[in-house]
Amino acid sequence: xxxxxxxxxxxxxxxxTALANAAAGAGxxxxxxxxxxxxxxxxxxxxxxxxxxxxxxxHPGIAATADPHRLADARATLxxxxxxxxxxxxxxxxxxxxxxxxxILCAKGIERGSDSFMSAVAAExxxxxxxxxxxxxxxxxxxxxxxxxxxVTLAASDPGLAAALSGLxxxxxxRLYHTDDVRGVEIGxxxxxxxxxxxxxxxxxxxxxxxxxALIARAFAELMRFARTFGGRAETLMGLSGLGDxxxxxxxxxxxxxxFGQRLGAGASPDEAAGGKLAEGAFTAAALAGLAAAKGxxxxxxQAVAAIVAGAAGVDDVVAGLLARPLRGETD
Length: 332
Prior knowledge:
Elements: E1 7-10, H1 14-25, E2 30-33, H2 37-46, E3 48-49, E4 53-57, E5 62-65, E6 76-79, H3 86-92, H4 94-97, E7 103-105, E8 110-111, E9 116-117, H5 118-125, E10 132-136, H6 141-145, E11 150-155, H7 159-169, E12 174-179, H8 182-204, H9 209-229, H10 234-237, H11 240-249, H12 256-265, H13 270-274, H14 280-294, H15 300-309, H16 315-323
Parallel strand pairs: 1-2, 1-6, 2-5, 6-7, 7-10, 11-12
Antiparallel strand pairs: 3-4, 8-9, 10-11
Helix pairs in contact: 3-5, 8-9, 8-11, 8-12, 8-14, 8-15, 14-15, 15-16
Catalytic activity: sn-glycerol 3-phosphate + NAD(+) = dihydroxyacetone phosphate + NADH + H(+); sn-glycerol 3-phosphate + NADP(+) = dihydroxyacetone phosphate + NADPH + H(+)
Binding site for sn-glycerol 3-phosphate: 108, 137, 139, 192, 245, 255-257
Family: Belongs to the NAD-dependent glycerol-3-phosphate dehydrogenase family.
């Protein structure tokens, strides 16, 4: 496999499988790495991921493996694992990733405990000097895997690297726009998951479309305040990785975060609402609210979600508290 064109994808969930299909569709041989050797062998043999993407064939240009040595000497590596496992996976694969090109982080979250963004986690764990980029935007795995039109954002602090990686991974229906605003893209991806849970709660509680529209607008204002404080640019949040992603995930049960919130709103406990499925926003909520509080950034919606997810407040009490907030100028 040529290092000039080969692409690694680390993570065999729905999003990892979808991005592997997209990269292969853009003309690259792809190594799809799974931690579980049995799952990797089944995926390689059956050419389908029935647990995460049933009915979607694996592109013939993808080779599934559990051998970390096969990740070495690639053009780029897409890291597509949950945010809370990024550090552990990078530590496990540190040696082969040293020659596997830039690492593109595809998790949307903030690490619990350290309250670190994914780029900071990568900087602490990867070999010094390893280029890091972040991919985020409005995208459902099933759409991308099936080759439906999708546009996302890729960010790297080096604008030339961001442009090169975007060109490398873009295909006929999977389009990447590039920016050097890494922090803005990370904040948009992590924050919208928390706010999508809030929108799901509104839907599950039957509070109506008017309430959901108002919540989206006020929640987005929160996200903008947070981004400005933590170094993200307003124009980034207005783009695909901010507003675009929030609009997608704040209105569809296809979003795990929206569906999780919807079940909370209907009366399920946080454990019941999770149903054994990952909702990144449930882990990110406390970190987002904590970072905001430490800097004096008002984020009542994010704080409300954190309280509900932690079991520290009930849905009705939180809704009543939000409705009782003082009236103010809309742009304040």
